[in-house]
């Protein structure tokens, strides 16, 4: 009786499974909207789930005092979809317990801040500035998601895996794309080998490529994070082949949300003429003309992308609003022992606590009456900006010790890609007008929802810029001044 109330119990144990299958990412938020509860229980076969919606309860769960009661556990998720064998799983559980894994530790060490974050960002930006002019051709027609996805995949993986990046091979990139839709099957299907056959074949192709990459020393030329986590996994007893599989976890963290975020950000910018104009104006105000050289007749314009966060408030505000408005993040923690939350709710040992980000991001008490609409001005106001630093209000990257350590790397690279596109191209909808795709089929496990269909666009190089040669770089902070 003291447990949070149980909702939807027409068919015991199966209501929730059916609800998730039918409504996917919207299921938990629909329940909150229907019943208006702060916390409730869902019963799944062999598992109790508590879904927490109220900011004050979330604060209790996240408090330092409760850090050992509510423990995140991403290791199981990583091991499940990377296909590690039982011995390797045992090794990693023994080595790390619930304290992350070699991958999460290395990302925290290398990408969270400092010179290594700068080096990784710079490597990704260099790749983008070389590839955008080749792939974004005048008059090209393609899906917007597909355009940004390919650019980001090659830039992010290139920066991390170095010159021998397995994803440079289109076959391997296609293998990854085949694999991603299978993740939901690995999580929920009793027979993934039957229901996700194509996805598992794609995974094998990617893993084989990584085996070869490590065997031939490709990792020795990579960002130091890669050899470090490989060696760490081997030192805990994984064979080389099994350690290579853990790159599925790195790839998923790196690739699952960035392209979708860029798609929605681009969509909102392009479909709002005022926003687009303001963003172009802000970017143009920080461009420098390079001194003319005898070698070329083109004018060279240089943009230090490192200054965007300081000098382009509208672009940054739209990025934050894209994350707030669209995020489908669900934080998952495991209850370590029977406990009473906020002196009221009994939570049982081994149950899973789920915190849907949308309950917070669309909460009118926090964000005002317009919480459920996209507002490109929202984060220009001081009041809303204050909320950015509170994970009880803004949590697209999670919260606490497991808060996404790749958040700065990904925002740096996404903002850079968007700046390169809007400065050089007019991007028009093939359909004649911008129509936002629905997100009904988005995956429950992804922090950002993929659109149900891609939006066909038509690229036109901006006329004035035909005579211009662009130089995009990620400079030192001092260069901003
Ligand atoms: C827009 C892009 C991204 C979004 C929205 C995003 C979101 C998230 C979220 C919601 C979590 C779970 C946090 C929690 O449980 O509290 C997470 C964890 C993580 N992310 Fe990201 N992420 C992005 C990009 C990246 C990139 C590019 C990398 C790495 C290169 C990365 C690496 C990680 C890692 C290692 C974790 C696990 C942290 C831990 O357990 O300690 N992410 N991310």
TrEMBL record:
Keywords assigned: Heme, Iron, Metal-binding, Monooxygenase, Oxidoreductase, Signal
CDD domains: CYP7_CYP8-like (cd11040)
Ion transport in keyword set: no
Family annotation (Pfam families): p450
Binding site for heme: 404
PANTHER family: P450, PUTATIVE (EUROFUNG)-RELATED
Name of the protein in its database record: Cytochrome P450
Organism, scientific name: Decorospora gaudefroyi
